[in-house]
């Protein structure tokens, strides 16, 4: 189902990944691939492990077993004396820069304006010259429709505008993969559309691998090349949106979708 890149290497590969908190197993031997440029929606009930998949990919926490690969290189591991060993903090930091993540809460720096928010990581992490980082920030803010808000501080922006700054900020690191974790959940209903429009635009204009945990089934159906339905830390069913939403095969998928669609 994945769209491999020209070398046939998936952009992301989870290989037998397990994540536990104490005795509670959240991801249970997960095998999963995402192709270069692929748009994937991750859906499933609360607590099924959707966010954990993104957090493990972002290396925000360590996995207990297995390995995650990014663009053919070990993400969670590093090579030492010809062996793959768990990555050290410096390796994780370097790898993390290749992945952009946008969260439910925008987490912008309140004392920085929109341009400064987008410049901060490229300057401090990538050591990008300030003029270049500023030009890139402006270009990205234009792309997310905030060309007239360069000097606005988060407190002067609506939730939807702040989330669009957060998207521009993540893109400023030139990530290979963008992760979106319920990015519209904290927004007032009338602001959701503007953020989804930006994601739609990025999907059509940039050749980025985009993984999205979402409860917006309508958007998932329209946007995703593939939908993965999670249940209890495993993929229960996956396939093109027309299959998952139109003719789901698994009983759990059917139950979940009928409950969600009934509630909307
Ligand atoms: N730091 C943690 N410590 C202990 N348990 C955790 C921790 N983080 C997540 N969990 C548990 O792991 C399970 C999976 O959480 P996760 O956030 O991945 O689910 P989710 O599918 O994204 O759910 P939701 O749709 O509600 O966000 C949940 O039962 C959660 O309580």
Automatic annotation (TrEMBL):
SMART domains reported for this sequence: AAA
Keyword terms of this UniProt record: Amino-acid transport, ATP-binding, Cell membrane, Membrane, Nucleotide-binding, Transport
GO molecular function: ATP binding
Pfam families for this protein: ABC_tran
Subcellular location: Cell membrane
Keyword ATP-binding attached: yes
InterPro entries: AAA+_ATPase, ABC_ATPase_HisP-typ, ABC_transporter-like_ATP-bd, ABC_transporter-like_CS, Ectoine_EhuA, MetN_ABC_transporter-like, P-loop_NTPase
Keyword Membrane: yes
Bilayer topology: Peripheral membrane protein
Domain ABC transporter: 12-257
Family to which the UniProt record says this protein belongs: Belongs to the ABC transporter superfamily.
Protein name: Amino-acid ABC transporter ATP-binding protein y4tH
Organism per entry: Devosia nitrariae
């Amino acid at each position: 189902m994945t769209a491999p890149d020209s070398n046939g290497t998936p952009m992301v590969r989870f290989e037998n990944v397990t994540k536990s908190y104490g005795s509670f197993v959240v991801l249970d031997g997960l095998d999963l691939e995402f192709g270069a440029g692929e748009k994937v929606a991750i859906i499933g009930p609360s607590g099924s492990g959707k966010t954990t998949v993104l957090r493990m990919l972002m290396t925000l926490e360590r996995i207990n077993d297995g390995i995650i690969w990014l663009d053919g290189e070990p993400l969670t591991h590093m090579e030492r004396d010809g062996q793959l060993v768990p990555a050290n903090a410096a390796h994780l930091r370097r790898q993390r820069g290749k992945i952009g993540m946008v969260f439910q809460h925008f987490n912008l720096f309140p004392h920085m304006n929109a341009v400064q928010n987008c410049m901060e990581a490229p300057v401090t992490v990538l050591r990008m010259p300030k003029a270049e980082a500023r030009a890139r920030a402006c270009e990205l803010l234009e792309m997310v429709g905030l060309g007239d808000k360069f000097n606005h501080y988060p407190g002067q922006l609506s939730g939807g505008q702040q989330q669009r700054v957060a998207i521009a900020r993540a893109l400023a690191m030139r990530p290979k993969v963008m992760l979106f974790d319920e990015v519209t959940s904290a927004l007032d209903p009338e602001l959701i559309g503007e953020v989804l429009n930006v994601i739609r635009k990025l999907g059509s204009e940039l050749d980025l691998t985009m993984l999205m945990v979402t409860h917006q089934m309508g958007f998932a159906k329209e946007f995703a090349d593939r939908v993965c339905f999670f249940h209890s830390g495993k993929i229960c069913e996956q396939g093109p949106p027309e299959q998952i939403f139109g003719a789901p095969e698994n009983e759990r998928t059917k139950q979940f979708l009928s409950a969600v669609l009934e509630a909307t």
